Amino acid sequence: MNPKTKVFVASAVLLVLGAAAAVGGLDAARLARLVLGGACLAALGWWWLKARGARGAGPEKPRLAVVARTGLSPRTGLALVEVDGRTLLVVHGDGFAEVHPAAGRRPPRKRARASFSAALRSVS
Hints:
Helices cover 48% and strands 26% of the residues. The longest helix has 30 residues, at 28-57. It folds into two domains: 3-57, no CATH class; 64-101. It is α+β, with helices and mostly antiparallel strands. It has helices at residues 3-24, 28-57, 116-123; strands at 64-73, 76-83, 86-93, 96-101. It has a four-stranded antiparallel β-sheet with strand order 1-2-3-4, with no helix packed on it. The mean pLDDT is 79.
């Protein structure tokens, strides 16, 4: 909410409290204390639920992370950036930047072992 709306809502609450106190024969100070106490309890409960939920989820992994950076010359550089799980190479300098997908390192393939009989056939 913007500040103008907050002031409007606060004014409306004050008017309603004053009218309720005058009509119901209640003491305005007692009614204001009850409303203020209720608002404080509601805010405390909201804060407690928010703090409890944040602890359980753990910190959120950032969507953008600079993994490594190096300079190629005084005005150009190369950065390895991870965006949403994808690794990118970014070449940047004065007035330009190029983005290229990084070639991922793949684990070497394991060759299937040949059976003993197939190994004998290949030798003879």
